Amino acid sequence: MSGPNRYLPVLACALCAFLLPALLAATKTAYLLTQLTMSAYYVLASLGLCLLMGYAGQISLGQAGFFAIGGYASAFLSKANLSAFASGRIAGLLEHVGLLVRGADAYGNAILSISPWIAFICAVLLAAGIAALIGTPVLRLKGHYLAMATLGFGIIVERIVRGTKDLGSADGLSGVPSFPILPGLAVAGGKALRASNFTIAWLVLALGLLALVNLIGSRAGRALRALHDGEEAAGAMGVDTSRYKLNAFVIGAVYAAIAGALLTHYNGSIGPGEASFMKSVRYVAIVAVGGMANLSGTLVAGLFLNFLSLRGVFGRFDDAVFGTILVLVMLLAPSGKARGRAGSRPGLPVFRRRGDPGG
Amino acid sequence: MPLELVLQYFLSGLIYGCIYAAVAIGFNIIYNATAIINFAQGEFAMLGGMIASTLAGILPLWLAVAAAVALTSISGVAVERVFLRRVARSGVLNTIVATIGLSMLIREAALLAWGESVRTLPFFSGTEVSSVYFLGAHFSPQVYWVAGATALIMAGLTAFFKFTLMGKAMRGCSANRDGASLCGIDPDRMVTIAFGISAGIGALAGCVVAPLTQTHYAIGAELAIKGFTVAAFGGLGNSFAAVLAGLALGMLESFSTVVVPEAYKDVVTLCVLLALLFAKPTGLLGSRAAATLKEY
Amino acid sequence: MPFGSLAKPAVLCAVFLSCLSSAYAADPIKIGAIFGVTGPAAYLGAPEDRTARMVVDGINRSGGILGRQVQLIIKDSGASPEKAISFAKQLIEEDEVVAIIGPTTSGESMAIKDVCQKAGVPLVSCASAEAIVDPVAKYVFKVPQKDNYIVEWLYGTMNKLGISRIGVIASNTGFGNGGKAQLEKYASKYGISIAISEVYDSNATDLTALLAKVNAAGVQAVVNWSIEPAQSIVAKNMRQLKMSARLFQSHGFANIKYVQAAGEAAEGIIFPCGRLIVADELPDSNPQKKLLAKYNADYKALYNEEASTFGGHAYDALAILKAAIESAKSTEPDRIVHAIEGLKDFPGTAGTFNFSTTDHNGLLMDSIVMVTVKRGKFTLYRGD
């Protein structure tokens, strides 16, 4: 996106964050806030993928894996009851510093748990660390092999969380505590907290969008796009392709992990299904429908499709609808693109950017 | 570990391996003709089994299987003409996405048509409880049919591509599309035929394992992932490598039961695949030259 | 003027009464349902969905509950916990349902347990995890039998058959893991030693490798705990491997389609479950017989397939809600909960329910019988 218009979606999100709850309350449809909040988090993960797939041109069929890493790590750490170590000196020290907090669970038992902020930061760092670790070898692969590697990664994460007893096995982790961001403001699922959580989610979304818009408009963003259009040419121009690809990969992972952690606290639970191949496909579908390298397209498509899906509008045909949309969008892709030429931008005409060079 | 157990694991690995190899061969044929990875390949295997299970009630078994293979072939051709032909031009990423969407659609259609229940085919020889003893292991006689079908597919394809005019034309097309069309070969027609063959092979594989593994509307996705894994492991485009890779991965899965809890079986297989891809990005027997040559 | 002074109140009364009755007649009782009709739990969710629709149609045809029609709002969660949460909130906050039945799987039920409890909306789950009702949450109930009773029946039968060394395999799902945990917990109480205990992928299509490993451990019997078609594959694989061990299954086998899929290999399999599938063998004096026979007949007539115990959970959930609402003469959540807890000797498909403030499941050991397969049909197991 170019020009001052590129901040429009950011402003729109921020405005909605504050105005929409009041609007919906006035029309007595405040219950819609639940699905809008959940959609915002899923879109955040899709935005990360948009940077990686759309701008950097790297396929990833494993975005759901990072979402799950963020969610599970945050859930596991914030649920861990360290009461057994309560009398230790280290525990006392950590509690003094505020890294451990005392509290009581829903049944009145005393628990000593890790501060939710620490759990959150650890979860995001874990996802970033894993992305950095596997990113270098994975991104050396091209085309279908890259797809296979990212697919394999996603499945590995899914199998691990599904097969590990401490991560809840097939039932997942439930009873995840709320995440107090600021005194009086928490990410949690209660009805009374609907409006505040909606605002939190959409502000996070706006911030995430802002960061990406700035990144894309910067020198780094131009380097990414150069990379997408022709990796060898970009390299010849002095762009450190592997570093940029890795950075995009890690950023994508971080976005997914943040979304996963926050949604887990909002829902109060997470299951192995969040790491599944079908979830990764949905993120890819949203980026594709939005127009690949199109942040506002991803935003609108993601909010629209996730919202409808979470409200059960598609009923039993949820997967069928996604499949149909994918098929249709690909069919309407601009013809005449030579096979293998990077920079193609299919997607509904609505989402193609005006004045897009090489469009 | 007693020898008997080792032989039993070996045999299980063989069964898995043949199934995966058959699906992977289907992937490779289409890849060679179009450079597309067709995620819907798994759905062709599913369709073969499902159609055959419906027809098995009214036709003799061999006819039901033949009809299922034929009908699935036709749907493969239809899919190519109506849809994939248009998408192929937009690049690797888009076609992957498109074929995934297609596989979802086929799966939902199958759910609508057949419901969610599991279905089986009668065993080609013997019954559900028949057992033969060979090379120190017990197994169902259906395993002979699975191994036989895989061998038949390989032999048939080799003969087709080496000795028939159409097969040679397809190879020519894969190697050099423009050169082939200059020789009077219609590349689009070759692609269509590739899809037909690929779908038929998938269906045959699906039918021959259906008595053992049962079939229902959702098995396609799992098969596609496994088939893709095997094809990538062996090197995309190389069907012979696919068979080797299939057997290797089958053995790996089977023998990992010894040390790893069954729940992590896939983790082992995928880690091995990833390690291989990191070391040799074009697969076990793949090479850049071979990839550009795109022999079947 | 006598009429004059009476006219106004009379008119007002008439208007008030007509409003009342028309409001009463037009105001349906909304019950929400979350089932995994499509997706990995479709074997359970689809029969539950069909049963629920059939039961509600029947209730409405015979006049509804408290004279009001029942409006069943079914959501297909695809066995996805996050969708279950979204739907639960939607049903509670938007549709303002009186109660929710389902979900199909344990994972989903645990995900929405807190949601329903905090919102004060009764939840009658069709999933089997113990954690759903233990610890007891005031508004949350479940209708499937306790896993440990199923296990104890199984072990009791094994004791009678002189089996002491077994292998346990379970599918990697909430159902499978739950059963495996109970099997391991109660083994020593019954003098059973578990030589090998493994979990397999729920999508597994061939288990010969795993079963060979189990066989090598020298077991007298294999217990398979899963709800997927893998149950039939285990049966076939065991015979193909020429294993001499006997096969016991969980109550997930209570669906004739799995017997058909296993063909000859299904003969002689023994498993514990509710009385639904052997209803015709029950004596007429049995309190469940009548409703089981009717359910079986109605389901088969409407859907052209045999009823299974999993569809029966939806039947029980609705029957219990109906009875509770009628007994409480109200749709207030607290009064419904109180009424459910007061249900005693209530016959359902899974057994005879006896709820209380501390027991939100209501089924005991006697809700279960041992069943086997003879000549492709389910029949009561009366010893070898």
**Cα radius of gyration of chain B in angstroms:** 19 Å
- Structurally, the number of domains of chain A stands at 1
Structural Rg of chain A: 21 Å
Give the assembly state of these chains.
Answer: heterotrimer
End-to-end C-alpha gap of chain B: 40 Å
- Count of helix runs of chain B: 12
Mean pLDDT of chain B: 86
* Alpha-beta classification of chain A: mainly alpha
Assess the beta-strand content of chain B as a share of residues.
under 5%
Order of helices and strands of chain B: HHHHEEHHHHHHHH
Describe the protein's topology:
The complex is a heterotrimer of chains A (359), B (296) and C (384).
Chain A: H1 8-26, H2 32-55, H3 63-79, H4 89-97, E1 100-104, E2 110-114, H5 116-139, H6 143-163, E3 173-174, E4 179-182, E5 185-187, H7 194-217, H8 219-229, H9 231-236, H10 241-267, E6 269-270, H11 277-290, H12 295-310, H13 318-331
Chain B: H1 3-34, H2 41-55, H3 61-87, H4 92-114, E1 132-134, E2 137-139, H5 142-163, H6 165-175, H7 177-182, H8 187-213, H9 219-234, H10 239-255, H11 265-279, H12 288-293
Antiparallel strand pairs in B: 1-2
Helix pairs in contact in B: 1-5, 1-8, 1-9, 1-10, 2-3, 2-4, 2-8, 2-9, 3-8, 5-6, 5-8, 6-8, 9-10, 10-11
Chain C: H1 2-26, E1 29-35, H2 42-61, E2 70-76, H3 81-94, E3 99-101, H4 106-119, E4 123-125, E5 140-142, H5 147-161, E6 165-171, H6 174-186, E7 193-200, H7 208-216, E8 221-225, H8 230-240, E9 246-249, H9 256-262, E10 270-273, H10 289-303, H11 309-328, H12 333-341, E11 346-347, E12 352-353, E13 369-374, E14 377-380
Parallel strand pairs in C: 1-2, 1-3, 3-4, 4-5, 6-7, 6-8, 8-9
Antiparallel strand pairs in C: 10-13, 11-12, 13-14
Helix pairs in contact in C: 2-11, 3-4, 5-6, 8-9, 11-12
